[in-house]
Amino acid sequence: MSQKSPRPRSVWSARYFGVAAVVYVMVGTAALWLLSPRVPYADQWRHYARLLSEPFAAGVFTADNGHAEVLPNLIRLADLRWCGGHELLQILTTGISAIAALLLLLSIVRRDPSLDPVGKSAAAFCLAFGLFWLGNMHALTLPGDGVHVYLVLLCVALALRLIAGDTTPTRWRFALAALLCCVASFTFGSGMASFIALATLLWPQRGGLRRIALLGLVALAALSLYLSLPDATHTPQSGVSHPLQSTQHFLQILGMPFVYLFWPLLDPAAAAAVPGPLRGIALATANFWTAHGGSIRTSVFPQALIGTAMLGATITATWRMRQSGNAARLGIALAWFGIACAGLIALARGSYFDAHPEQIYALRYLPWIGIAWCGLLLAGIARMPCSRPTYALALCLPLLALPSEWGLLKLAQHVQAVAEDSALGAAVGVLPADLPLGETRLEDVRAALPELRTANTAMFAWLASAALRHSLPANAHRLIAAGVDADRVTNVLGANAMRLRADFPSPVCAQHALVAVDGVSVGLLRRTDREGWRGFAAADAAAGFQFYALCE
Fold it and tell me: pTM to 2 decimals?
């Protein structure tokens, strides 16, 4: 007698998973559109300085911090040259790539006859969560990261779609899939792991070992070419630590989704931002955890144990792969992709992690590991019969992740504000010494400013920026402030400077307000809420400020 699946055959279960998938996709895409800074942030400053100052080939085909980002560099350069450097092209590329990757992976799941409607709906949620959970905040809301993360995932999804389901893929399908792995490799360093994902899917197929050997030669050729590219940064972030230490880093990285899934209950700083009624419970839990387990930002356990369990579960699932359907095989391939990414990170950043242990759990690594965990969950859901714990975890995950979704949403809003404040100050020529820069390095801003100003792009393409340090244009509309606060600041860019806050009770027709002294524009303000504006002025504290808007 065949064993019955314990999975409930309820239409409500299918609807529940379907709604959860749609909600996470909608929240992720809304965050991408609404919370992505339309200004340079973090590594973008360095990328832009190189792309604008170097000849085309040197700018595009030079590695940065160990990563060859040929395709993202082409998109960044097009954004700078033809789209005003407002990040819009990169945001659209990120969103289209993420949705296309999801649709390609879903097409593999739909072709699996062993899955009933409930199983297909649960599998769809696993994939949607892996791509659009705000644990991927660093990719979803920072165009500089999103453009390479989701282009890599798109290449992986398309390569797997070409191979999945065929007993023996045709030569052209295999060749195209291998080519896509090469494209992924020269999109970002993690793209090298795409060869592992493709090999996993080839392994149970007829003639798979021969194809895997050929794929290995292609991967070796791609790696040789990759290593031959010049590197523009030569930063101390790279370097291999002791093998045992690298293994520990590897397992910690695999377990990092635990950190962010339960983040508001583990980190006192995150718990303090939990909405009122639940804040006390979150703080008590976070303080208890920190007192007995240490800071979740640097602790080794339980993350390393969770990573070990994840690795063991993936090996077990791979051993049974020949008896699995297309959806389960897809999940296992995605799991190995993420595991390979964790290995690459642990090897390439070993010495950096030794010096900065808190960076092991940096958000920029989470998209690669999150897709691995969701792939493993997909493999468990797609097995027949599905185990009760696996199905229970899939049922609970949409609700379990909501607190972290809220916390990461607030973090994304904070990062957006930091990026916009620093870009506004850079346009004016004022960066206060106490201004938070987030992941942006001051030396990168200094290097990029002359190039961006000369190219009249990014924040220098704003209508208000063009009026800076000039007499007010004839179409400037006077704004009457209900209240103004001005504080002298120490400007790391050199000139006398003020930090300003103003309230304009009447509607303002522009995104930025000009600050003027004696008819000359000396600063800019940006809107922070309905009436509140803040910004900077390159002027002395004794100056009498007036405010204007340039209505387009």
Answer: 0.94
